[in-house]
């Protein structure tokens, strides 16, 4: 009988590897695939660290789609900030409104000014999901709201009441509100961006951007501020005007809202000018 190697007894090898020496195949210099071909037997499975075989659950198509959507949301902010930086100016202001197409409630406009020499990397990371407010859930907008306030150099918000909209008309009211908030956040050398429409003079360089809330970080940030501000107001109006369910539809023309108007009539929050056709269809 041959004696064990004097360098390391078999018992020592067993203690160091956790398996008997006979179970450890001698090194042949061949990859496992080559040994499989030559022996016709699969290479022994490598145990997982837990002592059992590894198991990878199959990735469903819905899970992959969810991950892709999350990556797109995280990338949207970078794309919007790149657009603003490409404008070549230190101060970029953007304005947008919420509630333009509603049957009830005010029109709210907001403007956000970013100082691109003062923005920190932490600010950009916190706004990596920034996008048009309509692309976010209510929870997503609420999460972005304080982040915009922290990152922005200046924010302005204005509200135009229902009676003012009815008297002056929606379009004029909207443009005047956007011009107002841009004028309040503007600085010397600032470029003021509006979503879609040219606005009345603000005293600063101005530029309309078609699809601006999905193009410019400043406009997208303003859209979030305007939307969250208006939604919060409409939620509070639920208690003052019960029955119309303002907290559910925040004034937009939904089947539930139209049914409430048929049942209860109009409230002091309802607009009677631009939406008069909708009210006629409801036989009011």
Q: Could you explain how this protein is built, in words?
A:
This protein has helices at residues 10-17, 32-39, 61-85, 121-126, 138-151, 162-168, 170-185, 217-240, 246-249, 255-264, 276-281, and strands spanning 91-98, 107-115, 154-160, 191-195, 205-209. It is α/β, with parallel strands linked by helices. The chain has a domain at 69-236: Ribonuclease H-like superfamily/Ribonuclease H (Nucleotidyltransferase, domain 5, 2-Layer Sandwich). A five-stranded mixed β-sheet has the order 3-2-1-4-5, with helices on both faces. A hairpin with an 8-residue loop joins strand 1 (91-98) and strand 2 (107-115). Helix 5 packs across helix 8.
Cα radius of gyration in angstroms: 31 Å
Overall pLDDT, averaged?
81
Biggest sheet: strands side by side, in what order? Answer: 3-2-1-4-5
Largest sheet, described in full?
A: 5 strands, mixed
List low-confidence stretches: 1-30, 32-41
Q: Which structural category do the helix and sheet elements fall into?
A: alpha/beta
Give the overall shape: globular
Helix percentage? 40-55%
- CATH fold annotation of the domain at 69-236: Nucleotidyltransferase, domain 5
CATH homology group of the domain at 69-236: Ribonuclease H-like superfamily/Ribonuclease H
Name the helix and strand elements from N-terminus to C-terminus, one letter apiece.
HHHEEHHEHHEEHHHH
By oligomeric state, this entry counts as: single chain
Number of helices: 11
Question: What is the CATH class name of the domain at 69-236?
Answer: Alpha Beta
- Please tally the β strands and state the result: 5
Strand-residue proportion: 5-15%
The first-to-last residue Cα distance is 108 Å
* CATH architecture group name of the domain at 69-236: 2-Layer Sandwich
């Amino acid at each position: 009988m041959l004696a064990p190697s004097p360098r390391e007894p078999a018992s020592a090898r067993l203690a160091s590897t956790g398996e008997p020496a006979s179970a450890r195949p001698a090194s042949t210099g061949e990859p496992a695939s080559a040994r499989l071909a030559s022996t016709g037997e699969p290479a022994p499975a490598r145990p997982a660290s837990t002592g059992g075989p590894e198991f990878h659950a199959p990735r469903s198509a819905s899970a992959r789609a969810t991950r892709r959507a999350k990556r797109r949301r995280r990338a949207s902010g970078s794309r919007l900030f790149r657009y603003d930086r490409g404008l070549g100016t230190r101060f970029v202001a953007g304005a947008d409104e919420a509630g333009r197409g509603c049957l009830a409630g005010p029109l709210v406009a907001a403007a956000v000014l970013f100082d691109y020499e003062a923005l920190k990397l932490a600010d950009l990371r916190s706004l990596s999901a920034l996008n048009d407010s309509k692309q976010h859930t209510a929870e997503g907008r609420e999460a972005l709201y304080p982040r915009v306030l922290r990152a922005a150099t200046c924010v302005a918000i204005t509200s135009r009441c229902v009676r003012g909209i009815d008297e002056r008309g929606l379009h004029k009211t909207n443009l005047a509100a956007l011009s107002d908030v841009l004028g309040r956040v503007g600085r010397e050398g600032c470029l003021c961006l509006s979503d879609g429409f040219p606005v009345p003079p603000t005293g600063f360089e101005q530029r309309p951007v078609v699809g601006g809330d999905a193009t410019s970080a400043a406009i997208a940030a303003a859209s979030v501020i305007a939307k969250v501000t208006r939604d919060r107001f409409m939620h509070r109006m639920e208690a003052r005007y019960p029955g119309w369910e303002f907290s559910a539809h925040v004034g937009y023309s939904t089947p539930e809202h139209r049914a409430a108007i048929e049942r209860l009539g109009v409230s002091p929050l309802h607009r009677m000018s631009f939406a008069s056709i909708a009210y006629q269809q409801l036989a009011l």
